[in-house]
Amino acid sequence: MTSKQAHGLTAIQLDALCGKWPGVTRDIKWGADLVFSVGGKMFAVTPSDGSEGGRLSCKVADERFLELTDQPGVIPAPYMARAHWISITEPRRFSTAELEMFILDAYILVRAKLTKKLQAQLGELPTWKAKK
What we know:
Blueprint: H1 11-18, E1 24-29, E2 33-38, E3 41-47, E4 56-59, H2 65-69, E5 74-76, E6 85-88, H3 96-112, H4 116-122
Antiparallel strand pairs: 1-2, 2-3, 3-4, 4-6, 5-6
């Protein structure tokens, strides 16, 4: 028997994922975009109403930017590409687990740029556990 892998990531799923990480705040910006930040620095953005096909934008490691933007359904994020952000315009092309890893990586990258004092106040980094 094969298990069917979930694809995509809704705003509600993203909120549930990020909401339990240390220091994460969420706001609505630019009208209807749900923005997740740590230490006042953004790491992920998605339309709060699920529009635009559930587009998901996030920070990625500099060395992965070109690799990821070469994939179908992923483009350099408008206005944020110079900071190595991607926009996943077709999130259903990716498993939910892959998208969760992108978001966790974005959180870790942005958190690593915070002051050492603030990082220490936030405590341990979250870990990702694959769902079975």
